[in-house]
Amino acid sequence: MTDDKREGDGASPRGFHRIAGLLYRADRVVRPAPWAQAIGPGDLWSDDGRDPEYNHAVRAPHGFGHERLHRADRLYDIVLLTDWNWPDAVPGRGSAIFLHRWRKPRHPTEGCIAFRPDHLLRVAARLHPGALIEIR
């Protein structure tokens, strides 16, 4: 946890954040809520501070640094997007702060908040766009 989030520091930004979106892999899980949007093979998230679309969803091919949302593992089968440094992103202040599935208990993320799969599904089904969460 940090009060001074920076890109690549591996820390989660402490504070209150709003839920800005809900993504899911339609080929792997049932739509968790009516407002959820399916993740496609070309869906990416920009994590490059030089990119005008930094900390926003982008599509492949993309000439700046990014991470794939359509992953081979199950981490992003359900993803709740937060409003950390979004929509008016400050380069280098941190990107892709999501709520997503954990790798395993007590395994760190790169700044996100990770849940057991059944808990994440329960959270995703109950939250709504604009819901306020606290990271502490």
From TrEMBL:
Pfam families: YkuD (PF03734)
Molecular function GO terms recorded: transferase activity
Keywords: Cell shape, Cell wall biogenesis/degradation, Peptidoglycan synthesis
Gene Ontology biological-process annotations: cell wall organization; peptidoglycan biosynthetic process; regulation of cell shape
Active site: H100 (proton donor/acceptor), C112 (nucleophile)
Top-level taxon: Bacteria
PROSITE patterns (alphabetical): LD_TPASE
Domain L,D-TPase catalytic, first and last residues per copy: 1-136
Record pathway: Cell wall biogenesis; peptidoglycan biosynthesis
Protein name: L,D-TPase catalytic domain-containing protein
Taxonomic source organism: Pacificitalea manganoxidans
